[in-house]
Amino acid sequence: MNPKGYAVYIAKRIGQAALVLWAAYTVTYVILNLLPKNVEQSILVARGMQEAVGDPNAIAQVRAEFGLDESPVRHYFTVLFAALHGDLGTSYQYGSNVASLIATRLGMTISVSLLAVLLAVAVAFVLAFAASYFRQKTIRAVLQALPTLSVSVPTFWIGLLLMQVFSFWLGLLPSIGQSGWKTMVLPVITMAIPVSAMLSRLLMDGFDNVLREPFIVAAKAHGFSRRSIIVSHVIKNGSLPALTMLGLIVGGTVNGAIVAETVFSRQGVGLLIQQAVQNQDFPVVQGVVLLAAAAFVVVNLVVDLIYPLLDPRISQTSKEV
Amino acid sequence: MNNRKHRPSAGRIGKTFAAIASVAAIAALAACGNAGASSAADAGTPQQGGTLRLIQFPDTGQCIDPSQAISDSGPRTVVRNYVESLTDQDPDTGKLVPRLASDWQVSKDAKTYTFHIRQGITFSDGEKLDAAAVVKNITSLSKQAAISKVLSLTTLNKAEAVDANTVKVTFSVPNRPFLNSTASTKFGIIAPKSLDIPTAQRCSGQGVYGTGPFTLEKYDPNTKTILKRRADYKPTSELAKHQGPAYLDTIEISYVPEESVRLGSFSSGQADAIHAATTEQFTRNAVAQIKAAGGTIQSHSIPGQAFNIYPNVADGKPLSDIKVRQALAYAIDRATYASTVYREGYPVVGGIYDATSVGLVKSPATTTYDVNKANALLDEAGWKTGADGYRHKDGKKLTLVWFDSTKRTGQELLIDELRKVGIDLQVDISASRGENLNREKAGDYDFVIEPYNAKNDPNVFDLIYSDQPAFYSGVHSLTPDKFKQARSIIKQADEGTTKEARLEQYAKLQKFIEENYAVIPLSERVQDLAVSSKVHGTRFGVETTVDFTDTWLSK
Amino acid sequence: MSSAIQLESAIDKTTKASEDNIPSRIRTSVVSALRRAGSGLRAHSGVSTTLAGLFTIVILVASFFPWAVTHKDPYATDPVHMFQAPSAEHWFGTDQLGRDLFSRTIYGAHATVTAALLSLAIAVIGGLVIGIASAYVGGIVDTLLMRSVDVLLSIPGLLLSITIVTAIGFGTTPVAIAIGVASLPGFARTTRAQTLKIKNHAYVEAAIVSGVSPLRIVFSHILRNVLGPVSVLAMLEFGAVIMSVATLSFLGFGAKPPAAEWGSLINDGRNYLITSPWISLIPGFVVVLTVLAATVLANNLKRGER
């Protein structure tokens, strides 16, 4: 691909990403406003104005304050315009700014999520390496079955079992609390398991495909050891396809965060949205969805942008299986 | 115990099976442990210092200003330990004793109250407690619409400082319930400067100072709340077991929504105490786990309303027929409910108020279990059992919708109990508070349960049968003319001049409610606290609170 | 949420991306990754297929005819016999109200599997309509539909489901609808890819040229050929959807009491994990085994198809 072509490609990709993000925001808005809801009362109760729920004046005031008296279309453009300026509205439940609400809780979610992804990547590589390194049928069978087994166990169930065993039974790790590395261990493992299962499937396959490539067969014929072939060729070439699946990992991590934070009662973004759904706190739901979609879009964008640079064969369309 | 190490290669399935085996082993152990559970006797000399790690339920109100905090045991207890009220109330007898007020007088017509304020007390920001500070508090409380109703301040004429340490409070009408309100946490007296902060902003607790044995170091309902000992605390309540500053250095409160996590954390020693929510009592299972971990359960009846069913008697609703309401009352096996949903030995409800409430009149008519009578009444009312086992009338099934905000074990038991007499009970759960209020207001349900604990005074029903309702359950449980009658009984009671006359009126109210089956008691409410063997000297206050002034930890 | 569908849609995404020069080999690699997923178990392929098949049949029978599998009432409380460990009388033990957990798990299968099938039906039918329309009509319609699908894919599945649940309310049916809609994009992509393939076959082109009505072409040629791969995907997705139903009901958005649903059975039992572990663990295992069986079957089916 020539430099000019690459520039056009970048511009196109960025444009698409922005479009997808806007559309995700709109879709969420439409879904959330599909049915009429009595949010005014929730807002009043959240403000401790329980006695005012029957008061038409108080309701009218809240409606005006949250722009609920506008027509749906007008309200949509109002919130969209505000969102473009970084203002995600006001939470019905907490009465505070959604962006800052998310910001104060994001750190907790991101630290656990990053660790979980790192752990998942490490485990996936080890598994995939082992699966391609060992040639004994039984070992390979067990290694290749592991991811399938792991994805069949619901994440919340993994969390419950880990807590039961390591916290309540062995007493090694705390089940409550949010500060200190010890409190992060179990949530990180809980979130890492499904992600690593997904990733190791991809890697095992990528490795196998490379192992069947002609140049590997040639290297074998030249007497290179299996380990050195895997280390020097297979890992690099075999993991490239998995790179394009990073978006999936973002999705898996967001899902994992919602479940893990609920199980371990950690006050991150995952628990924030779980509670927002319980309380019909639409601005918060909308904000968190936007954030997750942004993460997905950005990661995919980065992958799309760097992939052509990493894979020299990008311009050749290879047809082999 | 199955304690062998598992090699990593055992694989997921292997590990899971091992986990089960271990859990089962623990269960077996727990079962044996029950017998040997030792009680945390308050033996020995109190020891100074230490941190009490307390687990509470999530503070959904997200507010720790004394008057605005939600009426649950958790926030109320935090408030009680950093803010004091004019009086203190003995939770067993309902008797008022001095706290910030050393003494008080009530005029014969119950319109004028005079309080003598203790001297030498300071707020934790250094301000002095005096008559002016108390007046500022009362005036401010009377302006908060919802609170003034709860604290019986709506008819306030004036609160004034007669001298530096005497406060005179006058009302436009006789106001008997007022005195019991002065013991409430919602009547917590805060520093004059704290009152200058706008009401909504006080929720964060920042800048809010009280006179209590602890100070609010940090309030974060999402993570942790920390109370620190106040070294220069001057004791005020004679109900306290020792006179002096608190023994504990720190109280650290974590908020845990999941019962399994609360119990697990307590069992594994990560917490010293679990403070149950007012609406969530320890179950049989919880008691077993707490005892197995060497802990003790402390429990106190909550004065105020029991867990009551409020029927919707509007026209067209099945419960508009008093016979169906009567049948409903007979169909509930309250003894089994208490021992199954809660635990063995749990008190069985006997009236619309809990056992320790001032002025309770037992109501056998609405609390007796008799399936035969229930069936006979439903037959009489024209509801005939159909092929599906449920009762029908005019082609309509006898379906009752129980509208609730959370899922509880009791719902499932009640569904099955009512099924036995042919009533189809549907539980409808919605956690959205706005939606719930709308539905309650509109009467879009057949019955609801509305526990509200304001104070130990029979006048809590003033909030249920209110002319400006904050709770709509009362509005739909009586027809409009009967509702007026109930209101007039309450009005007469609260304007009554003697205590006896008042209680007599409240007995009349309870009779009236019973005759109309306007309230069907379901279960008693108790406030539970679990403490480890290290924790000594906890004291229940009125309104489900726990006072930690006397609490100490053995090493 | 559903890793299978996301992988599958990722395949399609990369197919589309190949127009932008991302190599199409990724597609083939992922397909074979899916194919391989159960290959470890396939070391004893016949045995695993038989076991998985048998288990799936049992679960399906239990879901559709729960009363034939158990004569016990799943809602009948019996406080005298609460917290009983598994025995000959109560195979899975009893719960906190003395209800028979075996029958609750069986009726739970009814609720959960029916919900999962409803989700799948929504996803498959919606996916077929969108996918075929997109590929067959082509042009601006194709672009619009596929971009919409991209948008739905950009929101993580669980998040999309709970957003829908927020809007339409809690309960088994809303949860099923939400999961169905959230799984739809993957099916749309697969259908589109398959339809494109078939559309270019000579006989379909001939039919188009000779003026056969589009509806007839869709029903007589395209649908028949698309259904195979789509049903394999549906089979793969079945396990994932069951997990999603259980997860949403675990998060507190599912069935209302006293209905038994797998997720809520597990959730309700977690308070008793230390004292009565069977209440939560046995339904948990049933979920794991069901998902596993569905995955193994789907993988073997997929292999057989090639």
Automatic annotation (TrEMBL), chain A:
Say yes or no: keyword Transmembrane helix present. Answer: yes
Q: Name one GO biological process term.
A: transmembrane transport
- Which residue numbers delimit the ABC transmembrane type-1 domain? 106-307
InterPro entries per the UniProt record, alphabetical: MetI-like, MetI-like_sf
The record's section on PANTHER family has:
DIPEPTIDE TRANSPORT SYSTEM PERMEASE PROTEIN DPPB-RELATED
Q: Transmembrane segments in this chain: where?
A: 14-35, 112-134, 154-173, 185-204, 288-310
Instruction: State where it is primarily located.
Output: membrane
Source species taxonomy: Bacteria, Bacillati, Actinomycetota, Actinomycetes, Bifidobacteriales
Protein's name according to its UniProt entry: ABC transporter permease
Q: Keywords assigned by UniProt?
A: Cell membrane, Membrane, Transmembrane, Transmembrane helix, Transport
Pfam families given in the database record: BPD_transp_1
Q: Where in the cell is it found?
A: Cell membrane
**How does the protein's chain sit in the membrane according to the entry?**
Multi-pass membrane protein
UniProtKB/TrEMBL annotation, chain B:
Xref: PANTHER family:
PERIPLASMIC BINDING COMPONENT OF ABC TRANSPORTER (PTHR30290)
The protein's name: ABC transporter substrate-binding protein
Under Pfam families, the record lists:
SBP_bac_5
GO annotation (BP), single:
peptide transport
- Which cellular component appears as one GO term in the record? periplasmic space
Q: What is the lineage of its organism?
A: Bacteria, Bacillati, Actinomycetota, Actinomycetes, Bifidobacteriales
Q: Which InterPro entries match?
A: Peptide/Ni-bd, SBP_5, SBP_5_dom
Keywords for this entry?
A: Signal
Task: Give an example GO molecular function.
Answer: peptide transmembrane transporter activity
Q: Signal sequence span per UniProt?
A: 1-30
Give the source's domain of life in one word.
Answer: Bacteria
Species per Swiss-Prot/TrEMBL record? Bifidobacterium catulorum
Can the keyword Signal be found in this entry's annotation? Answer: yes
> Boundaries of each Solute-binding protein family domain copy?
95-466
